[in-house]
Amino acid sequence: MLPINVKALLDTREIESSRIEYKRKWNQAECIRTICAFANDIENQDGGYILIGVEEKNGRPVLPVSSIDPEEIDKIEKDLLNKCHFIEPFFLPRIEKYQIDDKYILVLWVTAGQGRPYMASKDVLKNQSNKAYYIRHGSQTIQAEGFMLKELFDKSSYIPFDDRENPFSNIEDISLNLLKEHLYEVKSKLYDLCNHGEKLKLLKT
Q1: What is the Rg, in whole angstroms, of the alpha carbon atoms belonging to the chain?
Q2: Nearest residue to 95 (alpha-carbon basis) of 87, 86, 104, 103
């Protein structure tokens, strides 16, 4: 389950538009490049989200959502796993299915990657070995070149404290109250688990 309410992803007033990409349908090449860009997280925004089944116009989602065929969801998930092998080093986002009224969308949650910098194939269908580094520039995914490429490598050599893994931490180090406050602020459905005090179940979700 995502750490944020999916309705907030459809309302760019609640989350930065630079962290969201809307796709009318599953597009392998474009989605893989955007996953790579979010994982590189050059602006230290903790990655981003790709919403498949949502049309975009002038940077805003078109509502109601377009939807994707529910019979295509399993096929898209398998294709995503396959195409993510063309990201180097390998990176796989979290994927969640959501039903909004009688329509379906897929949300790809891309966190800042521990293996930065990442590069991806320019075209996963034609030339999978031809790779480049991608970053987010505003609300666009672009190829990192020149000073932007240097900046990517410079920032990748230093991972912000909040993004680092701590191999010596344990569950007792995590404050349930602080976690509860964060989930409430982002209107996450996980908030209900906090009310039952199920910290272990919550962290595994």
Answers
A1: 17
A2: 104
